[in-house]
Amino acid sequence: MNRRKFIYRTSGYVAGTLIAHSVPFKLFAGAGIPDLAIVKSSDYYKATQIAIKELGGINRFVARGSSVGLLVNSDFIEPGTYCNPDLVLATMYLAWEAGAKELVFLQPVSNDYWRRSSLYTRLSFLVDGSKSVKSNVFPAVYNLEDFIILETIPGGKNLNNVEIVRKIREVDTFINLPILKHHGSTIVTGALKNMMGLTTRKTNVTFHLGSGKRNDPEYLAQCITDLNLVRKPDLIVADATRFITSNGPEGPGPVRQPDLVIAGTDPVAIDAIAAGYLDMQPSDILSITKAYEAGLGEMDLTKLNILETTV
User: Fold this and answer.
1) SS3 sequence, 14-38?
2) Minimum mean pLDDT among 20-24, 77-81, 190-194, 230-234: which range?
3) Which of 20, 109, 134, 165 has the fewest CB neighbours in a 10 Å radius?
4) Residue 211 gets which letter from DSSP?
């Protein structure tokens, strides 16, 4: 593992950094726990484990005997459009090793998705032993067993009568596993937008049409922010290993492959990182600025300690 460095980025590329990046941020000096851990490796399973370890280890987030809910961006099939399953399996293994009594997928993950990982045969016991909110498959329809209706969201501005997976309120630990990629409507798909995977089609349609104008950028970004006020993830493991830079979310599109895994607890900061990987500034992305204004995290990465390491 390379040594930790402390440096301010002032341009799109600084020698020794992991990827050319248009957003300035400072690197971790080595005291305490970083705000974000960025690990570069061609071994995505190992990179995920190291990233979580650098944040203080899985026991910081998962207690023995606890229930863990996982939200994985897994529905797409084109290269660079879904969270690599090795990241998910590594996270699951650590949670299982920490003594979690229950691993629950808040949105089902298909068998085809798991077969994309060469590790699946060895770690299939994790998947076989997990649970899933089976009815939350797009286009999900509300039912009393799996969903609740939130008439209002404290601090929210646009959303009401939100149909959302009941388990998000019940699990002890919530882990968000997005991919950082392009999106045609929001520019960035990341930690913030991935939360839409918790809602029914009816609520999803509200995001896109609720203002009376299809995909109204301001309205859509505020809805994403409102949804993130329901519950902030305890841990985010974000895939920046390989991602599309246009024609998102489903692709196909041009692919960038920096081989990076990012772990943290701040969805705004992680999406700010994603903006840089797409050669944008965080201030260019409405979902980031509105989430920042709502107090969901920090968009100025120079105020955070960010660890970068290569293994």
Assistant:
1) CCCCCCCCCCCCEECCCCCCCCEEE
2) 20-24
3) 134
4) T
Assigned token pair, 239: 């895939």
Q: Are 42 and 266 in contact (CB under 8 A)?
A: no
Domains for the chain: give ranges and CATH numbers.
Answer: 65-299 (3.40.50.11440)
Angle (CA) 126-233-87 rounded to 5° is 40
pLDDT 10s digits, 180-228? 999 999 999 999 999 999 999 999 999 999 999 999 999 999 999 999 9
Q: Answer yes or no: are the C-beta atoms of 206 and 175 closer than 8 Å.
A: no
Residue 238: in which H helix or E strand, if any? strand 235-240
Alpha carbons within 13 A on the beta-carbon side of 30: 7
Under 8 Å between Cβ of 237 and 51: yes
> Quick check: bond before 249 cis, omega within 30?
yes
Cβ atoms of 159 and 227 closer than 8 Å: yes
Say how far apart CA 297 and CA 311 lie, in whole Å. 28
pLDDT band at 110 (very low <50, low <70, confident <90, very high): very high
